[in-house]
TrEMBL record:
GO terms for molecular function: tRNA 2-selenouridine synthase activity. This is tRNA 2-selenouridine(34) synthase MnmH. It comes from the Bacteria. NCBIfam families: PRK11784.1-2 (NF008750), tRNA_sel_U_synt (TIGR03167). Keywords: Selenium. InterPro entries: AAA_SelU, P-loop_NTPase, Rhodanese-like_dom, Rhodanese-like_dom_sf, SelU, Tyr_Pase_AS. Residues 12-134 form the Rhodanese domain. The keyword Disulfide bond does not apply. The lineage of its organism: Bacteria, Deltaproteobacteria, Bradymonadales, Bradymonadaceae, Persicimonas. The gene is mnmH. The keyword Ribosomal protein does not apply. It comes from Persicimonas caeni.
């Protein structure tokens, strides 16, 4: 079984499958993108083995681990065969590159696979992830505009035109505001970091990179400070769309959600919204008038976005003003023309 560092391991992972020997809970908290979970232990089994290691001895822990793993060995082989036939190669790792990945690597190697293990395990990978956030992107351009301007759609159209993008909302599975997480599965901070790291490493730093003007927090995911600081200093193209069009978009995106979800979203910004606006918003939701409720939300977010603009260090290089918002594809073309 060969071992290699995180950078080489990730290069190999572009071509060969990765099998993560950690528990389902560890995997759910964060994993290498596209990895397959092949847990040697269940969550409960790992807890039991760990307790024996601490309270009894290493030998007793190993023996108990063999009790758990032995009956599963054939299943492991069959699960790997569903993804890759021998000789592979196949890539394996656990938390620190210790007994779990060594055991899985030995089993697969015995069966005839060429196995490559991640030296230092997932912990080494996470250090690599954090290092990638120091990558300089000198041609970054920020796409800005008030809530409801349709920035994310424009960002996707820029990608369709061959531009490089970092879609922070897509990576966080959240649309940015208090309402942005409605009916969306939560992404952990670790997984957000891992997926973002992969996007950054695939960028060409010599070309333009577009990123939406997000706050430090996108839902519950924090944008890494080195990237956020670069974004604050990068030039900005600002979309200026009429209040009518912005409100139309807000109603279209959120108006069909359950009243309870909308009330919870307003509850999260209650203190900053103010008691009177909060009361009006809730009364409007109860009356089925989300357009009025949306007006209250936009007043709050417009003010917050204004504060964010004041904190930026980078210049506004273009303002694209639309009384009637054209298609996102057309706006994307206008953005490219301005830079």
């Amino acid at each position: 079984m060969k071992r290699c560092g995180a950078a080489e391991f990730l290069e190999l992972a572009k071509e060969y499958p990765v099998f993560d020997a950690r528990t389902p809970a560890e995997f759910e908290d964060g994993h290498i993108p596209n990895a397959h979970n092949l847990p040697l232990f269940s969550n409960e089994e790992r807890a039991e083995v760990g307790t024996l290691y601490k309270q009894k001895s290493r030998r007793e822990a190993i023996l108990r681990g063999l009790d758990f793993v032995g009956p599963k060995m054939r299943d492991f082989i069959e699960l790997v065969e569903e993804v890759s036939e021998p000789p592979g190669p196949v890539l394996v790792h656990c938390w620190r590159g210790g007994m779990r990945s060594s055991s899985l690597g030995w089993l697969l190697g015995t069966y005839g696979y060429d196995v490559v293990a991640l030296d230092g395990g997932y912990k080494a990978y996470r250090n690599h992830v954090l290092d990638t956030f120091e990558t300089k992107l000198p041609h970054m351009i920020v796409l800005g505009g008030l809530t409801g301007s349709g920035k994310t759609e424009v960002l996707h159209e820029l990608a369709a035109l061959g531009e490089q993008i970092i879609d922070l909302e897509g990576l966080a599975n959240h649309r940015g505001s208090s309402f942005g997480g409605i009916e969306r599965q939560r992404v952990t901070q670790q997984q957000f970091d891992n997926d973002l790291s992969r996007v950054i490493t695939e960028l060409d730093p010599s070309r333009r990179v577009w990123v939406e003007d997000e706050s430090l927090m996108v839902g519950r995911c924090r944008v890494p400070h080195p990237l956020f600081d670069q974004k604050k200093e990068a030039p900005l193209v600002c979309l200026e769309v009429s209040d009518r069009d912005r409100l139309d978009r807000l109603v279209e995106e959120y108006g069909e959600h359950a009243d309870e979800a909308l009330v919870e979203a307003f509850e999260r910004i209650k203190k900053r919204l103010g008691g009177e606006r909060y009361r009006r918003a809730l009364e409007a939701i109860e009356a089925g008038d989300f357009r009025t409720a949306g007006c209250e939300a936009l007043r709050y977010y417009d003010k917050a976005y204004g504060y964010g603009l004041e904190e930026r260090d980078g210049p506004i290089i273009a303002r694209l003003t639309y009384d009637v918002r054209p298609s996102s594809a057309e706006i994307a073309r206008h953005c490219i023309e301005q830079v």
